[in-house]
Amino acid sequence: MTDSIAALTDAATSRFVRIREGDLDLQVHYNDAGQGAETVVMLHGSGPGASGWANFHRNVLPLVDAGYRIVLLDMPGWSKSDPIVCTGSRSDLNARALKGTMDALGIDKAHLIGNSMGAHSAVAFALAHPGRVGKLVLMGGGTSGSQFVPAPTEGIKLINALYRDPTIENLKRMMNVFIYDASSMTEELFKARLDNMLARRDHLDNFVRSLEASPNLYPDVGHRLREIATPALVIWGRDDRFVPMDIGLRLLWGLQRARLHVFSRCGHWAQWEHADEFNRMVKDFLA
């Protein structure tokens, strides 16, 4: 194992930066790996206990080996980043946090990979700052408004229940829907995720407060997708029970330069459930 590979751990790549959000001075956590000329920023989903590293640790090394700098951003209200209550669009809040982080790190332009909430955030950023986006990779999110599945979906109901009552039983109920084959989740993995959630009860409580203040945290931007001209790779799980697959079709129809790949036997976490093929597809797309 080389020194560079050995250094690719959560702890070894952990960094902090300060950004402004309105009147707030926020400390934001991120992981920074690789030294490539091009930067890839990965944006995590909204699950309790989520972080950039937890969402994307199976994807970092292949992209570092391909020559990219990788930044995993923990959004305000998650993991080691400062707490916040969102009273408007979470997508726009996260886009502002992304801009603040890129400004502070001197990153003028980046490719964005977003899963679920992270995909909503990536689209919001691309709409607000089109010149600062290289390419987009969107999984399980990007806009709202399924034509076939009523909201909230089965998965969203379970995730909201977990925020309100963070128990191991509720975590297992959510994960059984979250990924296609939950048999790969060991008791150790469940316990680690639960411990990570309970370590920041303020994040859990603030998410519930945010839902009460703004039930529509991720607005439907389908009518604006045509404004985005950057190349986009849309990746979906056929068996996604959080964000239905027709949302992926809406992105394909709306974005100017999009392609769509659908994995069978895949839930809401394509980059984790089909990591090897996902990594190959993303490397080819970014190249």
Q: Tell me which CATH architecture applies here.
A: 3-Layer(aba) Sandwich
- Helix share bin: 40-55%
Structural class: alpha/beta
What fraction strand?
Answer: 15-25%
Low-confidence stretches: none
What is the CATH superfamily classification?
Alpha/Beta hydrolase fold, catalytic domain
Oligomer: single chain
What is the name of the CATH class? Answer: Alpha Beta
Our measurement of the CA-to-CA distance between the termini, rounded to an integer number of angstroms, reads: 26 Å
Number of strands: 8
Shape: globular
Taking all Cα atoms into account, the compactness measure Rg is 17 Å
Report strand order across the widest sheet: 1-2-4-3-5-6-7-8
Number of domains: 1
Q: What profile does the largest beta sheet have?
A: 8 strands, mixed
User: Counting H and I runs of at least 4 residues, what is the number of helices?
Assistant: 12
Task: Jot down its keywords.
Rossmann fold, alpha/beta, eight-stranded mixed sheet
Descriptive account of the structure:
- With about 290 residues, this protein is an alpha/beta fold.
- The chain is globular and about 45 Å long.
- It is built from 12 helices and 8 strands.
- Helix 4 crosses helix 5 (about 115-130).
- It has one domain (about 5-285): Alpha/Beta hydrolase fold, catalytic domain (Rossmann fold, 3-Layer(aba) Sandwich), CATH 3.40.50.
